[in-house]
TrEMBL record, chains A, B:
GO terms for molecular function: flavin adenine dinucleotide binding; oxidoreductase activity, acting on the CH-CH group of donors. It comes from the Bacteria. Residues 470-585 form the Acetyl-CoA dehydrogenase-like C-terminal domain. InterPro entries: Acyl-CoA_dh-like_C_dom, Acyl-CoA_Oxase/DH_mid-dom, Acyl-CoA_Oxase/DH_mid-dom_sf, AcylCo_DH-like_C, AcylCo_DH/oxidase_C, AcylCoA_DH/ox_N, AcylCoA_DH/ox_N_sf, AcylCoA_DH/oxidase_NM_dom_sf. This is Acyl-CoA dehydrogenase. Belongs to the acyl-CoA dehydrogenase family. The keyword Flavoprotein applies. Keywords: FAD, Flavoprotein, Oxidoreductase.
């Protein structure tokens, strides 16, 4: 089996680039050291390699089903892997020690998660949703809610979900119809149907903690009326709550992750002989969407991380294949009879490997940079904190969407490197491609994130988020101007950044929101390429003055990105600057 | 079930654009008329709709297996569909009446095949390989071979395959090791292993006619020593030939098409108690690869056709969904409470539909244009014939690769339009995506076609092929300059064409073949976009002066292509013109 993630790259990004070991200077992480960080990364790599990676294909071949007794049937390896993960304390990596956590910086905990995501993304989804669910409750739940629901989640005994979508309200949350009615005992009774619920039902954990968006009486119309509830599968006294599995979705990939249609309060179970599922309000009524965004923002970066890790695993698999498989001769071969060479000797194969490397290592850098901002936000104050928050807001749609698009393209190229073998189930890369295709959809499609970036993030607080981004990129450019091997890239990035700022202003000067937002997905793609180019320039700086294959490889991938990828933004910005209305003007009857 | 192909579009392309009804003026097609063409299209649409489309998902869910008796197990619907196809005479559509064919122009016969490809590509592969096999034998086989093998194939009783690849020689045909030894009776005895054999074994037909590349004694090294043999599963006397199924490949998609590893002459069967599989030489010894290219070139355009048709089916499925599914509100909605709208009302959804439309209708136009050239080559003489041949040579790598890349992207967008539903097996689009992924691999990967186009096709006969292409494109541009709504597109295409010619010259001036060919895949992509832009300008001309939704839709798709797609060639040509050596210089040890 090929390696699924490069520990060397993780170390480079965390320590040589992001200076994560410096975080221990802050009192919050004072108990930690480079040694404890290394230990958790070693542990994660070992468990992922031993308990997650070997079952990735088995999971794919054994999609979940509903048994005769109505429970979800999954292969035993999934529970074993997650039990090992939980018992190692990894569910609680970044949580306070008071909650039984390791008190790790988020960036270290998430780097350690990357090993699991690369080894077996569809098992790992249970863990990442549980962590996100617990984070939300730590932020907004009561002490009692934390004791009742968070502690068992951090121990790996309960798992968490997020329940937003409904059959008639996917991206359109304003239209959800799930209702919450206050009960005399201070709880609520929830009635409605939720779909696309990842980890929505299974027998992997003692309990499932659903976080459910529902409308309680008295809320305004649209998203304003939405409140957030804890609706557990089992109530604290062990009674079955009225959460019923209707069906599982059968998907192209990600087979080990159950994805369910759930009924709340349909009468399948009747806790205390009353109708409705018992729900516990989180925070205040009618503020549910704000709370949910806490989890959703984290989940969005995590989805980008799944995409990145799956792309990374495919890259390494195709690299391994390209080094082993002997086929064809160099185009400048002098004699027809000379021996064949390994695939990796061919320029077009190197192009496909460099492309993958530039996508997956660029995306990994962005993901870790974002998690580092989560830490920054926590340990800084005042303007520094505000800036970290703003930057994270702007980067989140990119950190979610860019890897979902380009690390899927990496998986596409990994198949291509394998030729016909890549299309067969004998190798792993076709599974990566199917698994990764999900990531452009869940936690908001590309289209939603395009609207979020252009319609909200770059204009909020009078464009403060975009200003912070531009300042940080400029800072990198200025530093890179000092290095001969980076100066050309720095200039190219400067031009692209200037163009981004110009084009943003032009779009918002259109005076017509439909025209401004008509090509927001293209805006998302182009901004994403600028941001990843920045990540590559940052990596160039971190490599500077260092020799050896690893650093030469980083420089080659940066060169690839600046030569083959960044120039793609040229026509994209031109299209955006023209305020083109091709799509707006196309009539449905023309199709 | 959504429509899978637009008959209106087929009619537009064949009759309004390509003037295929004019072909009946030629004596070869004098028996035909617009009515007979319509009749075969009607018949094809009806059979495809009735016998092919309803089983597309069933085929996907029932991948072939090897039964206890060693035979291939397929669901009954596949044989029923192919029997109906054969009994309707469709296997022989473009063959001479003397052979029992309909004597149709190739372009009409292939347009009729498009219905089957769109309805159920993995069943249709058996037919397209059989037709290609028969075409090769009609061209190079003896009368006896035609009577023995071709006639039953055209009746739909025998199916054909092409056997090129071996476990250690995929794209590298010079390295095949299958051997042919002459036997005293004039036949040969074949020994070796062939893999990736589409339709390699099954019980769908009375016999399977394998066309096998093998090395006979006395040939030179490399591809020069290769000869071509008919190696049937059953000999004319009904004896089992020594062709043994070793295993079936299990694939990501295209499940109804068996794909086999076959042993020839391993002793499983011993015809006439002699070792080796009996083979009949086609044409002269050591010229096998030339003959095989006759079938391969046809197969390449057909693979582009499969990709196109699968893209087309996905486009129509997502269009249907976008019209039905109500979700979200316009970005310029005045009140939050106003009713939700159909997906197709959103600009970003229209973008995804226009993109798909421009890819699949552009690719369909190119495919039919190529088949029209096959007819042109047959019914013309002298310079006209040479030009048709040259143009077809240049266009073949594009007609294969462009649809494989962009109609797969169409399938990707079709999933995206469906949101989460698109990722489930409840809808068809995830299957399209998996099925279509094959087409960038078989009959030569993108990389192989990039080398073919830049390394061979545009420089053969001192660049005569590229000159013919440029002349034809220029002719279209000149005509388009007369029309107000096309003049902007015409100018853009002129610039792109000029750039293509300049860049081709620059690449070949590098003086170093490794540098010239380093980015041949990028050259293939860019040239493909220029060619498809030409196809759209041609369609604009065919629409000119016509009103109505259909023509407005064509104009909108053309506008999309010229606005969003053609500009992508700018940075690609810049990269090529710079003779960039990023890939050549990357050392394997850096990865």
């Amino acid at each position: 089996m090929a390696e699924f993630l490069s520990r060397r790259d993780i170390d480079f990004l965390l320590f040589d680039w992001l200076g994560v070991d410096d975080l221990v200077k802050h009192e919050r992480f004072a108990e930690h050291s480079r040694e404890t960080f290394d230990a958790v990364l070693d542990l994660s790599a070992a468990i992922a390699g031993k308990c997650f990676a070997p079952h990735n294909k088995t999971c794919d071949q054994s999609a979940p089903s509903v048994g005769a007794d109505g429970t979800v049937v999954l292969i035993d390896e999934i529970k074993d892997a997650l039990d090992t993960f939980g018992e190692a304390g990894l569910m609680a990596g970044a949580f306070d020690e008071a909650l039984g956590g390791m008190g790790l910086p988020t960036v270290v905990a998430q780097a350690s998660m990357t090993f699991f995501r690369a080894a077996n993304p569809s098992i790992t989804s249970y863990a990442f949703l549980t962590v996100g669910n617990a984070n939300l409750l730590v932020e907004y739940g009561t002490d009692e809610q934390i004791d009742t629901w968070v502690r068992p989640m951090l121990e790996g005994r309960f798992f968490g979900t997020m329940c937003l979508s409904e059959p008639d309200a996917g991206s359109s949350l304003a239209d959800i119809t799930t209702r919450a009615v206050p009960a005399p005992d201070g709880t609520y009774r929830i009635t409605g149907t939720k779909m696309w619920i990842t980890g929505g039902d299974h027998e992997l954990s003692e309990n499932i903690v659903h976080l459910v968006l529902a409308k309680a009486p008295g809320g305004g119309p649209g998203v304003k009326g939405i409140s957030l509830f804890i609706v557990p599968k089992f109530l604290p006294d062990g009674t079955r709550n009225d959460v019923a599995l209707v069906s599982l979705n059968h998907k192209m990939g990600n087979h080990a992750t159950t994805n369910a249609l759930l009924n709340f309060g349909d009468g399948t179970h009747r806790p205390a002989e009353q109708p409705g599922a018992v729900g516990y309000l989180v925070g205040a009524e009618h503020h549910g969407l704000t709370y949910m965004f806490h989890m959703m923002n984290e989940a969005r970066i995590a989805v980008g991380g799944q995409a990145t890790a799956t792309g990374y695993a495919g890259y390494l698999a195709s690299l391994d294949y390209a080094k082993q498989r002997v086929q064809g001769r160099p185009v400048d071969a002098k004699r027809p009879g000379q021996p064949q060479v390994a695939l990796i000797e061919h320029a077009d194969v190197k192009r496909m490997l460099l492309a993958q490397k530039s996508y997956v290592e660029g995306a990994l850098a962005l993901g870790l940079y974002c998690w580092r901002l989560v830490d920054e936000e926590r340990i800084t104050t005042g303007a520094e904190r505000d800036n970290a928050h703003l930057l994270l807001e702007v980067l989140t749609p990119i950190a979610k969407s860019w890897p979902a698009q380009w690390c899927l393209e990496a998986n596409n190229l990994a198949i291509q490197v394998h030729g016909g073998y890549g299309y067969t189930k004998e190798f792993d890369v076709e599974q990566h491609y199917r698994d990764n295709r999900l990531n452009a959809i869940h936690e908001g499609t590309h289209g939603i994130h395009g609207l979020d970036l252009l319609g909200r993030k770059v204009v909020m607080q009078d464009g403060a988020g975009l200003t912070v981004l531009a300042e940080r990129i400029s800072h990198t450019i200025d530093a890179a101007m000092e290095f001969d091997d980076a100066v050309g890239h720095a200039r190219a990035l400067r031009r692209a950044l200037d163009r981004l700022l110009e084009v943003t202003a032009t779009l918002w000067s259109a005076g017509d929101i439909a025209t401004t937002l008509a090509n927001s997905t293209i805006y998302l793609e182009a901004t994403g390429h600028v941001v990843i180019a920045w990540m590559w320039l940052e990596q160039m700086l971190a490599c500077s003055g260092r020799d050896g294959d690893f650093y030469d490889g980083k420089r080659a991938a940066a060169r690839y990105f600046f030569t083959y990828e960044l120039p793609k933004v040229g026509p994209q910005f031109e299209l955006l600057a023209s305020l083109d209305r091709t799509t707006v003007e196309a009539a449905p009857s023309w199709f």
